[in-house]
């Protein structure tokens, strides 16, 4: 081929290539400026398989463009022939752009966790601790960074702790090994984290309770509440030393734990004057503990709960009412749950006891029929005008006439449900009106399940909630009518008159249409029940 012709062809191809490259660069620069325009304080960072838009000054973007320009020039094919030996034409150099004013140096972002003030972070941790407890959250949060470790180490977050060894195995060796492992951790936690501990709960400790209580009395002087649930080997010395070391301890829960009565009595003799709350499980050894209470061992006791364990105890409970009123005059909550209580009858002409002037809650609930009568209830509550909660579930001997004579006038919760009571008992057919007429303005929860009141009697009783007094609606928010003879019209009237009703139990109500005999929870379900009752054929007729 003629050298001149070859030179002319190569010269024609070169401008085309240059034009194509210029077009490609122009399009790429257009997209580049579209994603990160100048003056937007953003720049683009190109990697192998991604394109990142990052905040930062403009020089980074200029350096990136220069790097791409050099890369494209290296990948451009070189012309062959005589044109390759030709010298490139000099191009005019553009004037250098003014250098940007250097701003403050920006180091790596340490993260939002380090920017939160310590006081705010402690408050956030406090909300989580209040919901789920300090363990294991605080232990895990302390490993995030030094700032979180400082916040998680605040003793104020370790005021309520529950300690339960993991169930490593069903055998004795597995539980002992798990308790020793947790005890080794407590030897460091007690002096370093539990200095402000106030409430401690021990669950499923079988062999190391004495060692744990020893650490508590050495490093937890502010302890106020102690609960031992399903714990064994609790010695007398451990409780006595704890009562002497923790001068603010005023609440003790020993339910479902194997503790000798002598240990509890010794503890009450030491800490009795400051005791406020006591929870016990009824057994044959409880008699000695109750004797100490009747002897004014705890004159400031406010809460007393006595219940049976998982296995029902059929041993009758002998608890004299008047002696208890003298021994615990400041009692506010009295719960005798699922017990066979045989109150000692008062003799003829016997004077009544001092009563419980501060009593606000009385629970005598039982799964079976008990021996609590109107006379026993009157002896208990004759001096309790501030009673707010009365739970008499299973007390079939209590009648509405006996409840009407009680001195409490602002009762908020009344539970009279009969569960598991034989149908052969002669239940009251009338008298429910006496209850609602007395407390319809204050009752928030009413439980009449299993009661044998007639349809007409229930209609008259629940009609007391229909009338508004002074333009205010009734405060009733929970109504349990399971197994009663309530009618659809009566239920419709109650729902319409009580806009705050959130729970309604209509299970096994024989006078209601099918499909509506169930429990309703929430305002929407209760209103749906009202709509169904109003549109059902039985209610319209």
TrEMBL record:
Q: Which UniProt keywords apply?
A: Ubl conjugation pathway
Q: Which InterPro entries match?
A: F-box-like_dom_sf, F-box_dom, FBXL6_F-box, Leu-rich_rpt, Leu-rich_rpt_Cys-con_subtyp, LRR_dom_sf
What are the boundaries of the region Disordered? 1-26, 62-112
Q: Name one GO cellular component term.
A: SCF ubiquitin ligase complex
Q: Which SUPFAM superfamilies match?
A: F-box domain (SSF81383), RNI-like (SSF52047)
Which BP terms in the Gene Ontology apply to this protein?
Answer: SCF-dependent proteasomal ubiquitin-dependent protein catabolic process
Q: Where is the F-box domain?
A: 115-163
Composition-biased stretches, type Pro residues, lie in 95-107
Compositional bias, Basic residues, is annotated for 1-16, 62-75
Q: Name one Pfam family in it.
A: LRR_6
Q: What protein am I looking at?
A: F-box and leucine rich repeat protein 6
Species source reads Ictidomys tridecemlineatus (Thirteen-lined ground squirrel)
């Amino acid at each position: 081929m003629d050298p001149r012709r070859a030179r002319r062809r190569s010269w024609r191809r070169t401008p085309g290539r240059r034009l194509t490259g210029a077009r490609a660069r122009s399009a790429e620069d257009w997209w580049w400026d579209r994603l990160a325009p100048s003056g937007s304080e953003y720049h683009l960072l190109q990697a192998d398989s991604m394109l990142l838009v990052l905040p930062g000054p403009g020089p980074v973007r200029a350096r990136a463009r220069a790097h791409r320009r050099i890369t494209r020039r290296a990948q451009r094919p070189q012309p062959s022939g005589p044109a390759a030996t030709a010298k490139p034409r000099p191009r005019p150099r553009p004037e250098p752009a003014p250098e940007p004013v250097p701003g403050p140096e920006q180091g790596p972002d340490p993260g939002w966790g380090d920017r939160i003030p310590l006081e705010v972070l402690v408050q956030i941790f406090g909300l989580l601790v209040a919901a789920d407890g300090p363990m294991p959250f605080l232990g895990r949060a302390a490993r995030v960074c030094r700032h979180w470790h400082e916040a998680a180490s605040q003793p104020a977050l370790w005021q309520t702790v529950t300690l339960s060894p993991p169930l490593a195995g069903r055998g004795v060796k597995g539980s002992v090994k798990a308790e020793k492992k947790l005890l080794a951790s407590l030897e460091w936690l007690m002096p370093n984290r539990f200095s402000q501990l106030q409430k401690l709960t021990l669950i499923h400790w079988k062999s190391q309770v004495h060692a744990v209580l020893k650490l508590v009395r050495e490093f937890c002087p502010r302890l106020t509440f102690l609960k031992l649930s399903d714990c064994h080997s609790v010695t007398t010395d451990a409780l006595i030393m704890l009562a002497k070391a923790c001068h603010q301890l005023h609440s003790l829960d020993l339910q479902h734990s194997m503790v000798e009565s002598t240990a509890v009595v010794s503890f009450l003799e030491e800490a009795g004057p400051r005791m406020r709350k006591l929870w016990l499980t009824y057994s044959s050894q409880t008699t000695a503990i109750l004797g100490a209470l009747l002897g004014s061992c705890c004159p400031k006791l406010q809460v007393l709960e006595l219940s049976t364990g998982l296995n029902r105890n059929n041993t009758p409970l002998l608890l004299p009412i008047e002696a208890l009123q003298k021994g615990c005059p400041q009692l506010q909550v009295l719960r005798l749950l699922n017990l066979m209580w045989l109150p000692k009858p008062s003799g003829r002409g016997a004077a009544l006891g001092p009563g419980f002037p501060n009593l606000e809650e009385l629970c005598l609930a039982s799964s079976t029929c008990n021996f609590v009568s109107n006379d026993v209830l009157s002896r208990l509550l004759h001096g309790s005008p501030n009673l707010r909660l009365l739970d008499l579930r299973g007390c079939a001997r209590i009648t509405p006439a006996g409840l009407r004579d009680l001195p409490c006038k602002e009762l908020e919760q009344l539970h009279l449900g009969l569960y598991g009571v034989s149908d052969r008992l002669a239940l009251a057919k009338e008298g429910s009106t006496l209850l609602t007429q007395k407390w319809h303005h204050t009752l928030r929860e009413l439980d009449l399940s299993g009661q044998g009141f007639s349809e007409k009697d229930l209609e008259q009783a629940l009609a007391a909630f229909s009338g508004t007094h002074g333009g205010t609606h009734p405060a009733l928010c929970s109504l349990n009518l399971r197994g009663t003879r309530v009618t659809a019209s009566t239920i419709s009237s109650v729902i319409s008159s009580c806009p705050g009703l959130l729970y309604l139990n209509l299970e096994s109500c024989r006078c209601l249409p099918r499909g509506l005999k169930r429990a309703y929870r929430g305002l929407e379900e209760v209103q749906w029940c009202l709509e169904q009752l109003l549109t059902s054929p039985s209610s319209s007729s």
